[in-house]
């Protein structure tokens, strides 16, 4: 399979567009946790109950939609290979828990991969909507519409005082997690993230790495999300998160301006060195690749690097993960083999981008 064809098949359609403030906010996500009344939570449900829930979804919702643009298909975890499940995790379409622990789990996925519904993860239902850029309010609108449509066919576990009942007490209430993925290299370089994170935590929000709880902030990418789900309406939670994210956007842009004024030449040198590593390495580990990709993306945003799309850096943060590398290779790879393949894929992707620009403009681009 050619690299171009592989990328086309691997990247979610929603990732190919840019949303508001996409120089800093990579994506916005709304996740709603729901359970079906009269069924035990997944952690204690019988195998027959879990199977019944999956088949109920398959019969009721797959191939149908409340919206003409959202048609669904079902992916059953026991029918997928380990590499296929890992790819879904790397695309943020399912959680590691669903991939690893749920023998009778499934993912109901829209054609554009903007919407995914995890079945029999920690809860019976986890609705997720992903949008490019800073679009939490828009993601909430879609998630709420889908939630209402599901509720027409399902009796949710709900209490008048507590709200939606969930397997984990921290999700009781709205059952909602709102989050944004942010690229904050300047705040890291200027040392401001070390004081910003505790301040954000005091506001009832949490800062995590790129793959959520317990993960590292690879490539200076941070996930900011709410912790409180009880006692606040969904719209209020989103409004609070919107306010904090807006402030972080202002602070990141200010930090970039400061770096440009105080050490512009050093920053430019760092960006081009990182580009050189990506363009010429024959072996590269994931952490070094993420660091260099972060530098190059910042260089594109600041105008140090011309004629390279910001989107290909988004692609490479996904495509250089272990699952994708092994999928492109057609089988399992040892760590050293992954590092070699990662370097090759990055080089080929940069060459492809440069070739496309030459074809479009009829001359050199870098």
Automatic annotation (TrEMBL):
ATP binds at residues 27-31, 92, 126, 177-181, 208-213. It is an enzyme of class 2 (transferase). Appears to be allosterically activated by the binding of pArg-containing polypeptides to the pArg-binding pocket localized in the C-terminal domain of McsB. Keywords: Allosteric enzyme, ATP-binding, Kinase, Nucleotide-binding, Transferase. Signal peptide: none annotated. NCBIfam families: PRK01059.1-4, PRK01059.1-5. Belongs to the ATP:guanido phosphotransferase family. This is Protein-arginine kinase. It comes from Bacillus suaedaesalsae. The lineage of its organism: Bacteria, Bacillati, Bacillota, Bacilli, Bacillales.
């Amino acid at each position: 399979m050619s690299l171009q064809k592989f990328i086309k098949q691997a990247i979610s359609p929603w990732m190919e567009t840019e949303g508001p403030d996409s120089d800093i906010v990579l994506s916005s996500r709304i996740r709603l946790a729901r359970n079906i009344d009269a069924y035990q939570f997944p952690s204690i449900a019988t195998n027959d109950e879990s199977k019944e829930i999956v088949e109920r979804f398959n019969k009721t919702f797959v191939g149908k939609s409340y919206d003409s643009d959202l048609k669904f298909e079902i992916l059953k975890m026991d029918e997928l290979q380990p590499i296929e499940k890992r790819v879904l995790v790397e695309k943020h379409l399912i959680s590691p828990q669903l991939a690893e622990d749920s023998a009778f789990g499934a993912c109901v996925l829209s054609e554009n991969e903007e919407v995914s519904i995890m079945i029999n993860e920690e809860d019976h239902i986890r609705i997720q909507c992903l949008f490019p850029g800073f679009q939490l309010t828009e993601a909430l609108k879609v998630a709420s519409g889908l939630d209402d449509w599901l509720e027409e066919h399902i009796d949710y576990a709900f209490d008048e005082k507590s709200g939606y009942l969930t397997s984990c007490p921290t999700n009781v209430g709205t059952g909602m997690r709102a989050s944004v993925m942010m690229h904050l290299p300047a705040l890291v370089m200027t040392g401001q993230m070390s004081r910003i994170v505790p301040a954000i935590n005091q506001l009832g929000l949490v800062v995590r790495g790129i793959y959520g709880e317990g993960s590292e902030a690879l490539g200076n990418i941070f996930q900011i999300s709410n912790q409180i789900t009880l006692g606040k309406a969904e719209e209020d939670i989103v409004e609070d998160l919107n306010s904090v994210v807006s402030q972080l956007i202002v602070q990141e842009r200010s930090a970039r301006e400061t770096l440009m004024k105080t050490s512009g030449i050093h920053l430019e040198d760092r960006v081009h060195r990182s580009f050189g590593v990506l363009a010429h390495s024959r072996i590269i580990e994931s952490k070094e690749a993420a660091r260099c990709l972060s530098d190059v993306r910042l260089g594109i945003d600041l105008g140090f690097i011309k004629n390279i799309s910001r989107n290909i850096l988004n692609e490479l943060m996904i495509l250089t993960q272990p699952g994708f590398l092994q999928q492109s290779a057609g089988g399992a790879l040892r760590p050293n083999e992954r590092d070699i393949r990662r370097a090759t894929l990055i080089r080929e992707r940069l060459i492809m981008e440069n070739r496309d620009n030459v074809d479009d403009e009829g001359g050199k681009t870098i």
